[in-house]
Each structure stands twice: as structure tokens, then as C-alpha cells.
Amino acid sequence: MRTNVDIDDDLMREAMEASGLPTKKAAIEAALKEMIRRHAQRQALDELWGIGWDGDLEVMRDETKLGKTG
């Protein structure tokens, strides 16, 4: 897809230097992929939020309560 976008020259130069990518296209594609990756990561964390855990951490920490006495 061909798209024309006005991007700040200093911002683009800094992004290319930071990423080590040789072209504007590569820098923009890398930024878009990173944004998508972070969005997916946030969605995964949101889905996990509130699941909870049922257990007794003190029992897990104390081997004698787990029956491991030797």
C-alpha cells in the first residue's frame, strides 16, 4: 500500500539511528509492528487480570507442610 505521510525529519532520523534500520520504510514498518505487538501484549494481560489464584503460599514455602520431611 502506498501512503504519503508528513513525518518530522528529526524524529525519523532519531528512529532510524536508534533502530539501526537503513530506510524510512523499514523504520516505519518496525514501529508499526512494535505497536501491534504491544497492543496484543496489553490485551493478553487484560484477559489474565482478575483470574486470581487459589492456594496457600505459606504451605508452598514450607516443605514440611507439603509432606517433604527428608
List keywords for this structure.
VapB_antitoxin, 70 residues, mainly alpha, DUF2191 domain-containing protein
Record the SSE blueprint.
Blueprint: H1 9-19, H2 24-48, H3 57-61
Organism: Metarhizobium album
InterPro entries: VapB_antitoxin
Protein name: DUF2191 domain-containing protein
How much of the residues is beta strand, in percent?
A: under 5%
Q: Helix share of residues?
A: 55-70%
Mean pLDDT: 90
Instruction: Look at the helices and sheets and give the structural class.
Output: mainly alpha
Number of helices: 3
Cα distance spanning the termini: 66 Å
Give the CA-based shape.
elongated
> Roughly how many Å is the radius of gyration?
24 Å
**Topology as H/E string?**
HHH
- Main beta-sheet annotation: none
**How many strands appear in the DSSP assignment?**
0
Poorly predicted runs of 5 or more residues = none
Number of domains: 1
Would you mind describing this structure in some detail?
The chain is mainly α and 70 residues long. It has one domain. 59% of the residues lie in helices and 0% in strands. It has three helices and no strands. The longest helix has 25 residues. The radius of gyration is 24 Å and the shape is elongated. The N and C termini lie far apart (66 Å).
